[in-house]
Amino acid sequence: MHQSVFFAVETGGTKIVWRIEDAAGVVLDEGRFATGRPEAAVEALVAAAGNRTVAGLGVASFGPLVVDPASKDRGLMLATPKPGWTGFNLSKTLAERLQAPFVVDTDVNAAAVAEARLGAGRGARAVAYVTVGTGIGGGLCVDGRTLKGALHPEIGHMFVRRAEGDVQPSACPFHPDCAEGLAAGPAVQARLAGRRLEEADEVRAVTADYLGQLVAGLVFAWSPDRIVMGGGVMSTPGLIAEVEAAARRRINGYGAAVVMGEGGYLVVAEREHAGLDGAMLMARDGVN
């Protein structure tokens, strides 16, 4: 009899990571490979599963993609610059090859689930997760379920008000004044011109301001009990406190500020592989 396992997959712009666990939660195998073309990814993941019987497949994916559980196109990748991925449904294709039930969500929604249950969001009912790295993304987990509507949140493309005198070109090809274009990794690196973020006060200030504006928008729109922030940019020592201070200045004591409490409302992510952890939780729960 083949061993029954749970299979978690997280797809990213440059790499795909995966993990296989048994029913008791013991990690049996894990790995990573370059994202490449989706057909090659399917073959690599099928090979990773081997002869095991997959009881549940959880996929945490980059977007944009269809995440509506009721849609016949659930898991379908929409327009993306990644070669070969537009119109491909990795989750459905892989599930059919493995003959397994599948759950699919965005990588940031999956990370929100993991941080809410296992990480920095423990004890909070509504947890927002924000990653600031190569891009900016975010998800919301409320009572264990993630926010999904006609599509899924794309908070990185929320517009922010430019700081006075800031003429840095946006790194986003779609929007001249969105948070991702002005405060994600590529934009920050362009401002730094080879310096380190912790050594460039003026760059830290403008980055914190734009991320603070984004956080203020989430506080007003979602009123989460806690906001967990991850990603390479947020690993800069002290930056999260500056972002929280900028958000409080923008909110200026109004309405939803009550959810922020006295301090520590923004916290650094605890899970090193939150998206993959979330994918495993989804695989086990079987809930989309």
TrEMBL record:
Query: By its UniProt entry, which Pfam families does this protein fall under?
Result: ROK
Give the source species: Brevundimonas intermedia
Q: Which SUPFAM superfamilies match?
A: Actin-like ATPase domain
Q: Which InterPro entries match?
A: ATPase_NBD, ROK, ROK_cs
Q: Which protein, by its recorded name, is this?
A: Fructokinase
PANTHER family given for it? BIFUNCTIONAL UDP-N-ACETYLGLUCOSAMINE 2-EPIMERASE_N-ACETYLMANNOSAMINE KINASE, ROK (REPRESSOR, ORF, KINASE) FAMILY
Q: Which domain of life is it from?
A: Bacteria
Q: Which family does it belong to?
A: Belongs to the ROK (NagC/XylR) family.
